[in-house]
C-alpha cells in the first residue's frame, strides 16, 4: 500500500510503498542506509544484501543524491530514529537518476546556498523551518476564525500609502501612479466598518535599502482590524494570538524544533499576558543599561530593542511612542498630546519588533489635520476620510510580520531562511 513518511506510524509491521528522494546515503559492505525524504518528512531505509534481490542491492549502492525513486519496505519501530521508525527495504524502483547535485553534505557559503535556494529548500533544516512557518499560518487562521474575524483581501496595487511613500515601490498603473502595498491596513479599516472584525494575510513590500538579518524586501503580514475596540483591547488580542501560535508550534512541530536545536523551554514560557512598558520607561531602562546616546523622540533601533527585551522572558509591549515617530492615523493619548495610543511587540532573544499596532484616529477633523501635517495628498485619502463621516467608531488594529515571527519561534538567525524565496536588497534570483 502507498504511504507517506509522515504516516508510516499507521503501518508498523506492514509493507508500504513510498515515493521519495535520496537525501543522503552510506553503506558498510553488506548493508546500505538510505536517508529518504518525501516532503512530509525524513526516514532511514535499510537495505540488507542477503535479504533482497541482487538488483535491489545494486540499485541501493548506485543511486545518487537527490535521485527520485519508489521504495517498498516494511515499517519498523526504531527508538534511535528522530522519527521513531525506519524502513526495511525490499524493493527499489529508480525514477530519475540525478547527477552532480550541487549541494553536498559539506559546508557551503551563504551566497552559494542562496543562489541554489530552489534546491536548498530540500535540506532537513530548511524543511523544518518551512513546516514551522506552515504551522504558524495554520494556527493563525484557526485563532482568528475561532475569534469571529472575517478574512478580507486588500489590494496589492494602491494609489496611497499608510506610512508615506519613501519606502514604496512605484509602478505605472495605466495612466496613473501606483505603488506596491506596504500594508493593507487602510483597506481593512474600511472592511471593519462593514464586517466588524477582519484580518488579512498577504504579501507586503518595503523598498528599504537594508541588509540586516531582520529585513526583507517582500514579506508577509497578518493584519487584524477591529471596530469598537480600543487600544487596550487590541493588546489583549495580540498577546493571546502570539501565545496561540507559539503553543501550536510546540504541540505540532516537536520534531522540527528538535531538528533546528531550538530551546523549547524558552517557548514554553510564552503565555499571555505579556509585560508592558511605556516608551518613557523604556528610555530610562536604556539609559540604565548605558545607552546614553538615545534621547526622547528618538526611535529605537535593533540594539535598543534587544536590550529592552533582555529584561523579560516573554515578548514585551513598548507602548505610547512619541507622536512624531508614528504614522498619521494613530489616536492621540487622551491625557498627552505628545504620544499616541500605540504599541510595538518586541520578541525575546534579540529578534526585535514582530508586531506594530495602534488605536486609529476616528475623528474626521483630526484625521484631516494629520493628513495635512504629513503633506499627504488629500484626494488620494478621500475615501479613507469618508470612513470618519459615515458612522465613525473607535477602532484598533495591528500587523504581525510573519518572517520575523518564524525566525524567532524556530530560532534561526536570519529571516532569509524563513520564506521560501527571499527577496533581498541585492537578490531577485531565483
Distance between the termini: 37 Å
Please tell me the total number of domains. 2
Main β-sheet, spatial strand arrangement: 6-10-11-18-17-16-13-12
Q: Biggest sheet: strands, sense, closure?
A: 8 strands, mixed
Helix content range: 25-40%
Portion in strands: 25-35%
Helix and strand content put the structural class at: alpha+beta
Q: Tell me which CATH architecture of the largest domain applies here.
A: 2-Layer Sandwich
How many H/I helices?
A: 13
Shape annotation: elongated
Q: What is the C-level CATH assignment of the largest domain?
A: Alpha Beta
Quick gist of this model?
With 430 residues, the protein is of the alpha+beta class.
Walk me through the structure.
The structure is a single chain. The chain has 430 residues and is of the alpha+beta class. The chain has two domains: 5-96, Beta Barrel (OB fold (Dihydrolipoamide Acetyltransferase, E2P)); 118-417, Bira Bifunctional Protein, Domain 2 (BirA Bifunctional Protein, domain 2), CATH 3.30.930. The protein is 30% helix and 27% strand. The chain is built from 13 helices and 18 strands. The protein has helices spanning 54-62, 110-115, 117-120, 124-146, 185-195, 231-252, 254-259, 264-268, 279-288, 302-309, 364-373, 382-386, 402-410; strands at 15-28, 31-37, 42-48, 68-77, 85-96, 150-151, 157-158, 170-173, 176-180, 197-205, 218-227, 276-278, 316-319, 332-333, 336-340, 342-347, 352-359, 395-401. The strands form four sheets. The protein has an eight-stranded mixed beta sheet. Helix 4 (124-146) packs across helix 6 (231-252) and helix 4 packs across helix 13. The two termini are 37 Å apart.
